[in-house]
Design goal:
The protein is an alpha+beta fold. It is built from five helices and eleven strands. The chain has helices at 57-64, 92-100, 102-105, 177-185, 231-237; strands at residues 29-32, 36-41, 73-74, 83-89, 106-116, 123-132, 138-141, 148-160, 163-170, 207-215, 222-226. The protein is globular.
Length: 238
C-alpha cells in the first residue's frame, strides 16, 4: 500500500529527477518521495562496497541515479545478510535531519526473526551492554569504555518444526544487536552460524526488517513503512 509522506520543512531542495535511470538494478521500492526513497533490501546485498565484494546498494544507486544533484544516502543501517526496510535520503537536509534526530523521530524499528527453538518466556525485553571484539564480533559485557547499551524486545508469534517466529522491536541500533541477544538467549537466529546457529534451513540469515516508523517533523503524524515477511520464513515453521 502506498504511504503518503508530507514534505519536510526545508527538505527536498536539491532533489530532482535523475538524468539517467535504470530501475532494473534496484531492489523493490517500498515508497518514494522527493525527499526519501525506501527499499526492501534483499539478504546478501551489502549497503556499501567492501573487501571481497564490489556489488552494493550504493553502487547500484550511483548507476541508477547518474547525474542527480545528490546521491541518495542511507540514514540507518542493515547488516549485509538482513533483508527488509532500508530508508535513503534524497537531499542533504533530509539526511542531516534523520541522522541528527534519529532517536527523537524514530518510534519503531520492527524485525521478524526465525530462531532455533522457542524462547521462554514468550515475550521479554533484553538489556545489555555490547562490546565489539577485534574480529568485529559483538558480545554482552560490563558497562564501560567501548560498551554501548542495547535494548531488544521480542514476542513469540508462531512456532513449528523446532523453530519460532519472533516479532522484535529494537530501541537501540547497535551492530548485530538482535543476533547477539538471540544467541545469548540460547535461541540464535536460524542461518546465523557466526552467532551460534546450528541450522541453515533456507540458505540465508532468517532476519527481516519488516517495519520502520517515525514521527513526521513537520506534521507530527506517524509514518510507517512495511516490508512483507519473506515466504521462506513460513516454510521453515511448517
Amino acid at each position: 500500500d502506498e504511504v503518503r509522506v508530507p514534505p519536510f520543512a526545508g527538505g527536498g531542495a536539491q532533489a530532482a529527477a535523475p538524468v539517467k535511470e535504470d530501475r532494473s538494478l534496484l531492489p523493490p521500492i517500498v515508497a518514494e518521495t522527493d525527499e526519501l526513497i525506501v527499499f526492501c533490501k534483499p539478504a546478501g546485498l551489502p549497503v556499501h562496497p567492501g573487501t571481497g565484494h564490489t556489488d552494493s546498494l550504493t553502487a547500484r544507486l550511483e548507476k541508477s541515479f547518474a547525474g542527480a544533484p545528490f546521491m541518495p544516502a542511507p540514514v540507518h543501517r542493515l547488516d549485509r545478510d538482513t533483508s527488509g526496510v532500508l530508508m535513503f535520503a534524497r537531499d542533504p537536509e533530509t539526511k542531516e535531519l534523520f541522522q541528527s534526530h534519529w532517536n527523537e523521530m524514530v518510534t519503531r524499528r520492527g524485525y521478524l526473526a526465525v530462531v532455533e527453538g522457542t524462547p521462554k518466556p514468550d515475550r521479554d525485553t533484553i538489556r545489555s551492554f555490547l562490546v565489539e571484539t577485534d574480529t568485529h564480533l559483538s558480545f554482552s559485557g560490563a558497562p564501560g569504555k567501548g560498551a554501548k547499551e542495547a535494548i531488544t524486545s521480542y514476542q513469540v508469534v508462531k512456532t513449528g518444526g523446532g523453530y519460532a517466529l519472533l516479532d522484535i522491536n529494537i530501541e537501540t541500533g547497535r551492530k548485530n544487536q538482535i543476533r547477539v541477544h538471540m544467541k545469548e538467549l540460547g535461541h540464535p537466529v536460524a542461518g546465523d552460524k557466526q552467532y551460534g546457529a546450528r541450522t541453515n534451513p533456507i540458505g540465508r540469515l532468517c532476519l527481516h526488517a519488516n517495519e520502520l516508523s517515525f514521527t513526521h517533523p513537520a506534521t507530527g503524524e506517524q509514518i510507517t513503512f512495511k516490508a512483507k515477511m519473506p515466504r521462506d520464513f513460513n516454510r521453515v515453521l511448517r
